[in-house]
Write a structure and sequence with these properties.
This protein is an alpha+beta fold. Helix content is 41%, strand content 18%. It is built from 18 helices and 15 strands. The strands form five sheets. The protein has a five-stranded mixed beta sheet. Strands 8-9-10 form a three-stranded antiparallel beta sheet. Strand 1 and strand 2 form a beta hairpin.
């Protein structure tokens, strides 16, 4: 909830406040206030949650670090430019580079003007700097470069990694992404809510539940649409199953990149059991399109409850032995402990969510710290570690698996009866003005933010989804410095950032 004692509220004039939406307060500010807010980000007075264009405006989402107040800040840009936040706060840099690629708004003072999503292949674009991308230089004796990607082995998404190394030691890593840019935000414009919900569920396929939930909550906030209690409970059930499947997969895959295939195989089996249970209960392995604005499109019958209870019991029985195997294998520990360290101050500065942030001491989980139903009524613990290395990120996932199992048990035991969905038609028909909504939900990688603005007829005027990977990818560059090139696959998998989620 918002309070007048919040640091943001004390900084901004009362006239700037436009409206409130549950935990969010909306402000319209001038350029001077915008600069002051950017300076506050540099001082860690608040955390940057997102930054995007809504032409002719630029919009920024912030969290006040004094009391958790959430604020949406809008700056009018009638001349087509605004003060670049990244001048003061580096985590905004890639967001602003992308904004400059996609929209006619110029961030003045942008420290790095190279395009981010634009690779010089768009129709009518003859940008030489986009086609012949100048990587940042590094100087020193005996340095050489190792280019990796954008095409990789297996079926992973494309991304280019440019290593500067001295012998085997990495001196600098620079990423170039954007190879799977697909015009998501353009595709969302003027889309009916039902179609937009499907698109959001495909921004990053392994987080389809998290994105669908964030979009649904943003739409429901914009339309003041109530959600039935059973639907809220089923949404959390779907979210925890998604978290469970992904963490099991990541634990095994990270160990596999340390040449320990046995854990990869056993974790893969458990993940497959989760996916098969989801197929039986919800007719889709990844649970795509199960969450919709107004509620859910699927129900869980008694047989489904039994299936999931059996699944939880099986994982509870088998998972502890795998944890022991990880913990007692000295050769595996030798690869993961003290490798790829993310310093606590960097995790805090970048507002890193999920296991990347919490393994480096950043104690934030939107289920607890920006709570939404039914998590505000559930009993769970947010694990936090401080080592910040590959080992800590594995252990963080291990603890989150244990918490998800506990949450699934609570949800299955207390599933209320009732309807699954509130009809959208009445709410959309009653709306005669443009409405905006925003939501922050916890995906398996961290907090997913979705903001949208609706036309009076209920179709999407503008929508911006922000993946947690925006604030995690840059930390991978820092984590690999001082490590050997051969440890990059291990560090990279311990992060498991989404390419698709940031290549909008």
């Amino acid at each position: 909830m918002t309070t007048d004692t919040a640091l943001l509220s004390s900084l901004l004039p009362a006239a700037a406040r436009v409206q409130s939406q549950q935990a969010w307060t909306y402000y319209t500010v001038d350029a001077e206030n915008w600069r002051e807010l950017a300076g506050g980000l540099a001082r860690y007075d608040w955390t940057l949650l997102g930054l995007w264009a809504d032409v002719p405006h630029v919009v920024m989402a912030l969290r006040d670090n004094t009391d958790g107040t959430l604020a949406l800040i809008r700056l009018d840009c009638p001349q087509g430019h605004y003060p670049a936040v990244s001048q003061w706060h580096p985590p905004a840099l890639r967001l602003e580079r992308s904004l400059a690629d996609l929209y006619p708004l110029h961030p003045e003072g942008l420290p790095d003007t190279r395009p981010w999503l634009n690779h010089g292949r768009w129709p009518g674009d003859d940008s030489l700097i986009a086609r012949h991308y100048p990587f940042l230089p590094a100087e020193g004796d005996g340095l050489h470069q190792v280019p990796v990607g954008p095409v990789h082995a297996g079926i992973i998404e494309p991304g280019h990694f440019r290593f500067t190394a001295q012998g085997e030691t990495v001196v600098r890593l620079e990423q170039r992404l954007g190879y799977v840019h697909k015009g998501t935000e353009k595709l969302l414009q003027n889309a009916p809510l039902a179609h937009a919900a499907k698109l959001l569920g495909r921004v990053s396929g392994d987080s389809t539940v998290a994105y669908a939930l964030a979009f649904a909550q943003a739409a429901e906030a914009a339309l003041a649409l109530p959600v039935p209690p059973r639907a809220r409970q089923l949404r959390a059930l779907l979210a925890e199953l998604e978290r469970l499947a992904n963490h099991l997969g990541d634990i095994g895959a990270t160990c596999n990149d340390a040449a320990f295939a046995l854990l990869h195989a056993h974790c893969g089996i458990l993940r497959e059991h989760v996916l098969q249970a989801c197929q039986r209960c919800f007719a889709h392995r990844l649970m795509m399109d199960c969450i919709v604005p107004g509620g859910v499109a699927v129900d869980l019958d008694a047989a489904g409850v039994s299936t999931l209870q059996t699944l939880v019991s099986e994982i509870r029985r088998r998972f502890p032995e795998l944890v022991k195997l990880y913990d007692r294998t000295a050769s595996l520990q030798d690869r993961t402990v003290s490798t790829g360290i993310v310093r606590a101050e960097l995790a805090r500065q970048y507002g890193a969510g999920g296991y990347v942030g919490r393994a480096s001491g950043r104690d934030f989980d939107s289920r607890r710290d920006a709570p939404y139903p039914p998590y505000d009524q559930l009993d769970f613990t947010v694990p936090v570690l401080s080592a910040g290395d590959v080992d800590a990120r594995i252990w963080l996932r291990i603890h989150e698996v244990e918490q998800s199992l506990q949450l699934l048990e609570q949800l299955l035991q207390n599933l209320p009866a009732g309807t699954l969905r509130t009809d959208l038609a009445h709410s959309a028909a009653a709306n005669t003005t443009e409405r905006t909504g925003i939501a922050l939900v916890e995906g398996f990688r961290g907090d997913v933010l979705v903001w949208l603005r609706l036309h009076p007829d209920g179709t999407v005027a503008r929508c911006h989804p922000r993946d947690p990977s925006w604030f995690q990818w840059p930390l991978l560059e820092a984590a690999i410095e001082g490590n050997i090139v051969a440890d990059f696959p291990l560090c990279n998998k311990s992060f498991n950032c989404s390419y698709s989620g940031v290549d909008l």
